[in-house]
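Please fill in the sequence for the structure shown.

STRUCTURE ENCODING:
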């Protein structure tokens, strides 16, 4: 995900300029088949390089979450 710097702001509403940023996310999954049942095992990492960033509409320049991990299991029968 990439966002360019935001320089078109409205100071009457308290907006300030925002620097550009790029973050990288990665996800992978593996499918297992048992008779009529399919199991998906998955793993993901958001904000892989743990960058500090915020969007131009984020109030008070509060940073978005840093690196986070996701694990999942899906069962289809």
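FILLED IN BY: designer on duty
SEQUENCE:
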């Amino acid at each position: 995900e990439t966002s360019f710097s935001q320089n078109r702001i409205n100071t009457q509403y308290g907006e300030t300029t925002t620097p550009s940023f790029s973050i990288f996310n990665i996800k992978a999954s593996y499918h297992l088949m048992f008779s009529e049942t399919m199991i998906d095992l998955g793993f993901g990492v958001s904000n892989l390089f743990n960058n500090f960033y915020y969007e131009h509409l984020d109030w008070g320049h509060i940073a978005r979450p840093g690196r986070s991990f996701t694990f999942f299991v899906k069962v289809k029968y």
